[in-house]
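Holo prediction — 3,4-dihydroxyphenylalanine.
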Amino acid sequence: MNNTKKYVKKIISKINKCVNIKELNNLKLKYLGKNGSITKKIKNLKNININQRKELSISINIIKKNIIKFIFIKKNKLINLKQNKLSFKNNIDITLSSKNILSGSIHIINKSINKIQKFFSNLGCEILFGPEIENDYYNFDSLNINKDHPSRNSHDTFWFNKNFLLRTQTSSMQIRTMEIKKPPIRIIVPGKVYRNDSSLTHSPMFHQIEGLIVEKSINFSNLKWIIKNFLFNFFKKKYKIRFRNSYFPFTTPSAEIDIFHVKYNKWLEVLGCGMVHPIVLKNVNINSKIYSGCAFGIGIERLIMLKYNLFNIRSFFKNDFRLLKQFK
Ligand code: DAH
């Protein structure tokens, strides 16, 4: 063992004397290359008598490991030295602190959508996306909102012309989906929607997630269970929830869900839902005597505002670092 230590010391000193990487590589070859002295010793082990072999192989192994380790250390030192010399030559002060590079992060709206998608994927929902430029058939007519229906006015629609518009609700994807898929259907559709409306709680563009389930025996209790569990999963704490009787032309019965916000001291509407109207099912040739459907539309910004106590919906779209940073 003493001899091994001496030998290792000798090699380390040789390694440390190398002044460039080429010399270091040559030294490595000399010991560990194909015909290197240590390699040869390893190959020769099999000819040594069994009693000495064990001790010898341990020594050789120690030597080999040390050579690898110290060559690695020396190599890094030489590389650093080279870089320092270079920067000195180019007048680079490597002691200066580096520029503060801001790293990006996923916007809280997308983060929340991802989280919601995960919840509904676990319930077996497929995630679909639809066009933001819609025609009035998918956005209104097929959803039982015909031309002179009063609720058309409440949508503050951005029209391109008589037929085309920026979709006011993701519900338009209910029809598009049922036209091409046969039940059972379980989908959610996240996306942007547009309404000509602007205030602290309304923005001309905002995000919704539509949900649609069409099956043989889906009922209002199932819908309630889904909504309750979804809200609990999103907020991670128990809020007072209220199912309020409401009206949507494409669902019957319909409900709006309010959450009681302690800070605001009032009920806030967060989503609409209901059982898909038989007329809507008829519009896509689904027999409402065999199948029933439930649907819901979630307003994403509203949920986030509730969860994080935000007061102005516009703050989502200002790209103010102070807000964005909080949701990293
Ligand atoms: N589309 C409705 C809105 O934007 C929300 C909604 C209500 C969607 C009831 C639904 C539903 O699917 O069943 O106000």
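READOUT: Residues 169, 171, 210, 248, 251, 254, 272-274, 295-297 surround 3,4-dihydroxyphenylalanine (CB under 6 Å).
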